[in-house]
Amino acid sequence: MPLKSINEYTYYEQEQLNKLKYFYDNQLRNLIDTEILNLKIEGFVTKEPVLFKDRLNYELKSYQVGDAWGELFDCGWFKLSGKIKNYNPNETYYLKLDLGGEALLYNDKGVPLKGFTSGPTAFKDLKFNPSKIYYPINDLINDSKIELWVDAGANDLFGRLDNDGIIKSAKIVKRDLKIRKLMYDVENLLGIIPLIKKDSKRHQDLYNALIEIYYLYIYDDINWLEKSLDIVKSLDKVTSVDKLHLYVTGHAHIDLAWLWPIRETKRKLLRTITNVFYLIENHDRFIFGISQPQMILWLKEESPELYEKFKQYVKIGRIELQGGMWVEADTNIPNEESLVRQMLYGIKFYEEEFNVRVKNLWLPDTFGFNANMPQIIKKSGLDYFLTIKLTWNLYNEFPHNTFRWRGIDKTDIIAHIPPLGNYNSNATPLDHFKIKENYKEIKDIPIALNLYGIGDGGGGPGLEHLERIDRQKNFDPLPYISHRKAERFFEYLENYKRKMPFYDGELYLENHQGVYTSKSEVKRYNNLLESTLKTIETYLVINNKYHKYHDELNEIWKEVLLYQFHDILPGTSIKRVYDELIPNYQNLQQRLMKIVESDLTKETMFNPLLKKATFLKKENNKYYLYDLKPLSFDKFKNEFKYIKETKELNFNTNNLKITLDNERGVIKSIIYKNKETLNSPNFNQLLVYKDIGDAWNIEKNYRIQTPTEMKLTGRVIKEYEKIIEINQNYTFKNSHLKETIIINQNKDEIEFHHEINWQDLGYMLRSSFPINIDSNIATYDIQFGNITRSRTKKDSYDLARFEVPMQNWVSLKNNKFSFSLITSGKYGTYTDLNLLDLNLLRSTNRPGINGDIGKTSYKYLTVFHEHDHMIDNIDHRAMVFNTTFLKLKENSNLKLFELDNIDISYSTIKESYDKKGIIIRLYERSGYNQEANLKLNFDYKKLELVNLVEDYQNVLANLRLKFKPFEIKTIKIYL
């Protein structure tokens, strides 16, 4: 119903409208149903789902309407039975079912028929939600007898147990479809009236018609229903002259985990798909879009019968496959190769299962988008991008709805943000009117998209959405509305490409900045698995063992990609999701190590990188320095033995003089080439802020408070020849932090390792670096490239970016020196003209209780250097810092390939998807035009340049490669 009118009504007029709304909400709808039979309810409850075939193995208990049957996320099978008196097979009988949560009706062969959802518990404005609690059951009645089996979940759409989850209804009713039609007619007119100027004749005609209908009913006119329907029919439906053409597509954005566990998502999926099938079979224009291949694979696994039906509806165009990614993933935290694999596995799944090549990336709810996404999208064979999320900006309204999004390599794609700013449109007149009011490019681009249905928790569109749209199509003052696929919408947008404004760089969401940090352990494991996958895939190719593990690696990748879903990896799901996720991560890591188990050795370390890798590794109370050649195996070069403990607080490296504060544990002075680099004596100060946000959001003004410094409670400093190891213990209230600082006296860098047992809710831990560099910008690592952001707070856009994401490093530079912070599994930073700081941990309590309570670990590295991040190889240092180096058996020590340009790197060496060769993916990191000679040290048959999803582009005639700034090149090598 409309929330706001363009008109001002007199007191009397408003009272009349209130009567009409009451008539619609509380009287008219109650006339539709005639109760026939209250069903007998029997069932059993379990903690986890029970298969249909096993339901008869449990003892049934009797239940009544009003009973609460389970705790949150319990599962129940219910048998509903009864006999209809005076059964008439020519009449239609409906099951009216509301078990206080969600449910799925099965037929006697175990095939799901219809999903039921206690929708009003989550959508209070949708008081009338018939399609989620009604289903015609004539085909299930046997000689007036009924026996129905329903699988139920003790949770509503949003993972709650509303009103203790009591059974509200389990009955058979007959429905008066004429009254139902009138109800929708009245609802539509009540929605239209406030959008028409009050002093117009049309407003008066509609208003008078509603008043007449109301009094026909109130005064008990014997023919009130027929007369009311005639009144509606006689109304002049003024044809819309609006130039906006609104394409509408049914949608059910389903979070793969959020306020419920992953296993419940699979059940939500079945409920949603059965609802979709029902609407397809009962509305000839309805089109439904689904956007996550992982979800469709679950459908195939959970219900082969529904999956076959699903495939047929895709084939005839009633279900549209949308989106290129395996899941609707985060795009700031996963590394570059993860984003490519999201595309590869998602697009290939659609091709192999449905012979469909999608053209859009569909991320309605993801929390911001890195600045290299246009290239990743385009080089995956996609042309279009859709999101809703930028309408959630808290400080600056995003300037466009339809635009050309241009990335750091100057690739641009067509992007659309549906003007309603919602992927759960109720399809009301107000929704469609708002689209006209909100659409920023409406003067030049007369088409827009609206997604309607119940999402997040699933369920999809209901009959009410379709009834509303049917009544609004071409109805002034609304846009012209038609059911269309999103694909057709985007194709039509091409006609207006030249009129679209450009938007350059990242699509930063001025909201949800806490997601770069929440759930530290999840981010650590994701980073570890990404790194381990790269190392093992490279090793298998070098050793010609990739064929054997092709399928298993695909399985592992897909599970890692699943957990990159935009509510899982960002840390915004409930505690149960993470309680189940961490063991799954550990299992994936074990599976990866088992692949190379027979090749593990104590002797040679494998370097999977294109450049020399130099790093320290501590074993058996010694430090070992490895200096590994590219793509090669080698033993350690130097060994640093334990010498003694020391009380010394001053340490020197090549160019640094480092002074440790004795009382507080911070570094109070760092002199680089005889110049102090700090603007305050608080380098690596561990500060605790009160955090009143949730897992999504950090309060913008949190820095107003005076933070608490963690208290140093103990220190032991050890010398290992050229290596200084500083072990410090800190406390804050009930929390403990063990810090190890490693100083290699041959390097101008300081490495920090933290092991934490955090036990205090409502706090955020940050590490502060007050670097004296007077530059207005900082450079941040992103996938396949880097971007600069302002360090000033000169305008509202800078102020909104009080927390920003990075991949592995951030770098500051002026004409005196440079400073870089390299992280592993830490992504959120704050920068201003005086300091840089790193967000380490957030102990929030919503939606997951006890977020980041418990143990976690991580590391970061600070580097002082003379030149910029490119000249001083900060990107490569970060790769080394984030690489999983494994001790593996040495092969012939032959480099697989070589490049003569150090500014070109690679993100993967792997077997091709079709198993016909290997893939090498290269990219330019400096932001300049580059050339490189590629030398392959093995025999091959043919070389091809392919895109990110390994589609052929052209034959690679020679190995002299030209790169544009930040360009990605993927080479397929046939062996």
Structure report:
- The protein is 24% helix and 31% strand.
- The protein has 975 residues and is of the alpha+beta class.
- The protein folds into 5 domains: 13-29 and 179-234, no CATH class; 33-175, Jelly Rolls, CATH 2.60.120.260; 245-511, Glycoside hydrolase 38, N terminal domain (7-stranded beta/alpha barrel); 653-881, Golgi alpha-mannosidase II, domain 4 (Beta-galactosidase, Chain A, domain 5), CATH 2.70.98; 897-974, Immunoglobulin-like.
- Strands 27-34-35-36-37-46-43-42-39-40 form a 10-stranded antiparallel β-sheet.
- A hairpin with a 2-residue loop joins strand 34 and strand 35 (723-732).
- Helix 3 (201-218) runs antiparallel to helix 4, helix 6 packs across helix 7 (304-315) and helix 14 (546-562) packs antiparallel against helix 15 (575-595).
Please list the strands of the largest sheet in the order they lie side by side: 27-34-35-36-37-46-43-42-39-40
Reported for the largest beta sheet, the result is: 10 strands, antiparallel
What is the CATH H-level superfamily of the largest domain?
Answer: Glycoside hydrolase 38, N terminal domain
Strand content: 25-35%
Q: In the CATH hierarchy, what is the class of the largest domain?
A: Alpha Beta
Structural category is alpha+beta
Percentage of residues in helical conformation:
10-25%
Q: Assembly state here?
A: single chain
- Coarse morphology: elongated
**CATH topology grouping of the largest domain:** 7-stranded beta/alpha barrel
What do the pLDDT scores average to?
A: 95
Number of strands: 55
Counting DSSP H or I runs of 4 or more residues, the number of helices is: 17
pLDDT under 50 segments (min length 5)? none
How many domains, in number, for the residues? 5
Rg, Å, rounded: 31 Å
CATH architecture label name of the largest domain? Alpha-Beta Barrel
First-residue to last-residue Cα separation: 64 Å
